[in-house]
Structure of Ribonuclease H-like domain:
Amino acid sequence: MDGKGRALDNIFVERFFRTLKYENIYLNEYETPKSLRRGLNQYIKFYNEQRLHGSLGYRCPVDFYHQDLAQIALLSIGAILLGYSYAHEWYGILESEVQYWGYLSEALGLILLILILPRFKGVILTKVILFIGLIINIPPIILWFIFHGSIDSRDKT
């Protein structure tokens, strides 16, 4: 981990140590090694369970990791199928995550649509909807439901 070109290997540990020093050690005057050990254990427990973390959307780790599985599934599926901008608005994904995963979620959404939609009627309609979604930057799944729903209603009459 200390080899040449490995400057970023320890970045997470270094960041934690900086936080530990500024939020605990510099604020407390530990007089004995025993009190220091007790204080560090308490702070690490607080850090891992109760402290709000920016990388978790300013939620504490316990709340973040014990979310409903359904909410996590909706977040994942929503980010892929509805497009990242809608998932950001509806589920509160961090802006940095939106930028990072944006194109990937759109690509995965399009791949899913390409795989799923041909099973329904109108392969040409599917391609047109995908193209329109790309041109006007509306999530293709929403366009598909709009167009497919109107076509189904015409078929029934």
Remarks:
- The chain has eight helices and no strands.
